[in-house]
Amino acid sequence: MKKITLLAGILLCSLQSNAQALNEVKWNVLNTIVQQSVEIGYEHFIDQDQSIGAEILINDRFSYFGENKKATKFKKFNTSSIALNYNFHFGGKNNEHASGFYASPFLKYRFGDYEKYDENSTNVNKIEKVDMNSFILGVGAGYKIVRNDSFTIAPFVNIARNFSEEVISEFMGIELNAGINIGYRF
């Protein structure tokens, strides 16, 4: 009986020493303010300084290209995207895991279309659609501030390469993006 109690005590102590938060949900508040889009994400920590993540972007836009509702300058994005990333964290002070500077290679798939006024048309209401379906490969970097291993704030910047000829001919091949993620760990 003493051996079982001792074994249970050791197991309980080892579980409590590893009781760090292993998951994080986050929201890019800057995208919501600047682009009127919603970017939410999930991150699962696989180690003290590594994690994998996924993000969903609703009303995703190419970089910070704006929209316009005027008939002869009409521009509208009807796009969303999903992204997968692997995060490497370089830091971690005060026993806060996955904090400090981080780098994040990612793969993103954008789907939907971009509508714009057709300048070659004599009809004021003529709208041209550009297919935005594309794979995007990139890398991001940022700094994650962690409070009590539960609340996080992480400003970041991403640079990515777009692999759709149609998107490249309308915009460009390189895409820049930035944001501020606010998250909660559990």
Short description:
The protein is an alpha+beta fold and 186 residues long.
Question: What labels would you give this structure?
Answer:
single chain, 186 residues, alpha+beta, eight-stranded antiparallel beta barrel
What does this structure look like?
- The chain is α+β, with helices and mostly antiparallel strands and 186 residues long.
- It has 3 helices and 9 strands, in the order αβαβββββββαβ.
- It has an 8-stranded antiparallel beta barrel with strand order 1-2-3-4-5-7-8-9.
- A hairpin with a 2-residue loop joins β2 (38-47) and β3.
- The longest helix is centred in the first third of the chain and has 16 residues, at 2-17.
- The two termini are 35 Å apart.
- Residues 14-18 have low confidence and may be disordered.
Topology:
Elements: H1 2-17, E1 23-28, H2 29-35, E2 38-47, E3 50-58, E4 75-90, E5 100-117, E6 127-131, E7 134-147, E8 151-162, H3 165-170, E9 174-185
Antiparallel strand pairs: 1-2, 1-9, 2-3, 3-4, 4-5, 5-6, 5-7, 7-8, 8-9
Strand order of the largest sheet: 1-2-3-4-5-7-8-9
- The radius of gyration over CA amounts to 22 Å
Major β-sheet, in short? Answer: 8 strands, antiparallel, barrel
- The first-to-last residue Cα distance is 35 Å
* Elements, N to C (H/E): HEHEEEEEEEHE
DSSP helical segment count? 3
Q: Whole-number average pLDDT?
A: 86
The level of helicity is: 10-25%
